[in-house]
Amino acid sequence: MIEILPSLLAADFARLGEQIAQVTEAGVNFLHFDVMDGHFVPNISFGVPVLQSLRKSTKLAIDVHLMIEDADTYAPMFVAAGADCVSVHQEACPHLDRTIRMIQSEGARAGVVLNPATPLVTVENVLPLVDYILLMSVNPGFGGQSFIPYVLEKVRALREQRERLGLSFSIEIDGGVSVDNVGRVAEAGVDWVVAGSSVFGAPNPAHAVTAMRQAAMD
Ligand code: DX5
Ligand code: ZN
Fold first, then answer.
1. Handedness of CA 165, 64, 7, 208 (dihedral sign)
2. Is the whole model's pTM more than 0.90, yes or no?
3. Which ligand has the nearest atom to the CA of 198?
4. Domain boundaries along the sequence of the chain
């Protein structure tokens, strides 16, 4: 069963509690929380204090996607603030092995993110360590961009690699996923689908989640 992870980046921040209640009603198990530092990506979003407030107001698992240069300094703060999963970009982490182990020892599931143009071979050696791999299907920094189709090839290759190695990490995709392409995304072998504008940009976010889940099964 595919998981839909609503991305709070596309939510109305003045009505965050209400928006979370809407997707909770649709039965999601995770929220996706995009942290941007204005350096690794050309945008700034939100950080630890917002996560702390969120942690008090929801029991859903929170998947923190760190689009920041200094993940080693900040990842433990996000775990302490209540993150259940923390992912870091391969492109920003020169000591990836150490960073993954650090996140896990702090008590969260650890993921590694690859930008669309970063090949899978860059994470080959850490596949036995990670809890999940997040494949970006847009260039990170902004919601509402178009899906980059060649990422589906990466999903298929990663799924095959996982099978061959007998591993059980989850495969996540992020960017430009909508009710129109989620069928292809699910078919390629994704476990977790992040959806921002297609959920919170819809008139009814709960219905949008249900429609995406349905389209993923068709
Ligand atoms: C992009 C973020 C995404 C973003 C996705 O840099 O990592 O999580 O919220 O938004 P949509 O689904 O609108 O492409
Ligand atoms: Zn994200």
1. positive
2. yes
3. 1
4. 3-217
